[in-house]
Amino acid sequence: MITAELAKAAKPGDSPIDTLYGLVAEDMRATDRVIHERMASAVALIPDLSAHLIDSGGKRLRPLLTLAAATAFGASGIDHVKLAAAVEFIHTATLLHDDVVDASALRRGKIAANVVWGNKPSILVGDFLFSRAFELMVETGNLGVLGILARASSVIAEGEVMQLKSANNLGTTEQDYLAVVTAKTAALFAASAEAGAAVAGAPPALVKSLHDYGHNLGIAFQLIDDALDYSGREKLMGKSVGDDFREAKVTLPVILAYQRATDEARRFWRRAIESGRQEESDLEAAIVYVEQTGAIRETHARAEAYAERAIRAVAKLPSPDIRNALIDIAEFCLRRGH
Amino acid sequence: MITAELAKAAKPGDSPIDTLYGLVAEDMRATDRVIHERMASAVALIPDLSAHLIDSGGKRLRPLLTLAAATAFGASGIDHVKLAAAVEFIHTATLLHDDVVDASALRRGKIAANVVWGNKPSILVGDFLFSRAFELMVETGNLGVLGILARASSVIAEGEVMQLKSANNLGTTEQDYLAVVTAKTAALFAASAEAGAAVAGAPPALVKSLHDYGHNLGIAFQLIDDALDYSGREKLMGKSVGDDFREAKVTLPVILAYQRATDEARRFWRRAIESGRQEESDLEAAIVYVEQTGAIRETHARAEAYAERAIRAVAKLPSPDIRNALIDIAEFCLRRGH
After folding, report:
1. What ipTM did this prediction achieve?
2. Do A150 and B131 lie within an 8 Å CB cutoff?
3. What distance in Å separates the CA atoms of residue B203 and residue B4, rounded to the nearest whole number?
4. Quick one: B29 exposed, middle or buried, by C-beta within 10 A (0-12, 13-18, 19+)?
5. A119 touches chain B (CB under 8 A)
6. Tell me: domain B3-335, CATH 2.60.40.10, correct?
7. Right CATH number for A12-335 from 1.10.260.40, 3.30.470.20, 1.10.600.10, 3.20.10.10?
8. Minimum-distance CB partner of B123 among A43, A100, A162
9. Which of B91, B117, B136, B154 to mutate to test the interface with A (most CBs of A within 10 A)?
10. pLDDT tens for residues A66-92?
């Protein structure tokens, strides 16, 4: 959900993501080869539908974290590359299922797979990619990383189920929201970085550091993403604004704006979010309310705190190049929102 | 898809499935405990929806195969029990996704989960159970069985995607049909039995025997199941007849009947299956056509050949009790159709 916007927000060559990409360029090309080899199937619909999403310009941020973490601890061979491909397959599978669940029309600026091929193939190809991810992990022969990613996968699914409850529900608390973000976004960021360190044989304390980096970066990213959905400026960056609002998702900007709302504004939120009856001009009004109440500023402040934790987590990473690139990515994530 | 019908077809205590159940009764109770412990989640919807399907009277045939195979080779401890629970989770996940894909109204005689809770939770809880299955497998620490079941899972998904193409399509060949049945049904039967033998440390030749037993039994079961869908007698056995026909699925009885059809009958099949315009009396006509052309008899004959292969596959199994029960189950499978 995040990588596409990042890709568009960054000018080629000048983003810290590109810098990190450069540090693991050979492994990333190998990962891309594994991804394309392993999404192959005699059933043509499987690679067709998979390629539609996998080749749609996502930044491969999660496999990038896996490769970066592995490289920081001197990984060689092919296992960390297979893991990186597995992580991208898990992510792609969740996107395919997400888009069916949300009845999304667009994904990364293209018509979503569920619209092109229908819900049935999207569900089943998601299942296929998910299974392929586990096949790749089994090939590494590393039970530790299998455990990390199996656990992350069930946490992601739990987060997605949790999120269903918060739609149309202004009773959603900050705690509920953070639990969803932690599960549906941060868990895979954390597992991607952690698994890379683990497969490269990093010491346990540093494996945990990479986990913490991914976890905090994931939350910061999602917070900024949710703020951008109410940002007027965002249209400039190629992101469609108002998706969450139109789907009546209760994200942190809404939670904070509702807490601080006047009676009139509360009536507005209840109609627009709880009853789901929205009018043409509602998005503009919502943007004004989240700005006026300081909800966007506050969401950014939270994101900043998580990004700082991410930065602190990698302070002791042995490889200075990788460490600096990871730090820059955490800072870059915040700049997206300003 | 099969176990519910089997459960109803068998009088309690007199089916060979019950006999096998008796031989692994303690392990099966332990499997049930693991299943219920591991479908727990702080997100209440997950155990609620899971229990709706898991406690709906399925016969646990796949975990039964895992436990039987493991017991035949003297398994002790808890690993084969965890695997059996994992196999049931994978099966349950595929049923949840199947019912969304087919827009099913009923499952095992109860209102389907997708009708009670909607498609979204069904998709996501399926993902959760699938991930939990892998967590359980990781706990066994056995990479060999992880590989067997990861591979089976991607083959199942491939089979389900393949099956989409055969709906409304009278160009479906026997070979297409067998490829679908092998992937979507036989692969998990085969992997369930194989994984049980492998985790118990059976010699490779006998691990393969168990695989072959499950594979052939799975095909035989599915063939009989597809024949029963066109059987007038079947209403007596509590099965709803005509589901495949109404969904315009091209199963072997239809393929054979269409091959042997008169011009008039061909027009009937094209209208009912290809155009999907069905009338009230069409199911009765379809039943007459599949009977008259010998398509049902022929489907049974094929099932018999697969059941015989299943029986031959376990001829060298060391445990006579388990061996005989497995043989009886293969024979029992055919009796369902007469």
Report:
1. 0.92
2. yes
3. 33
4. exposed
5. yes
6. no
7. 1.10.600.10
8. A100
9. B154
10. 999 999 999 999 999 999 999 999 999
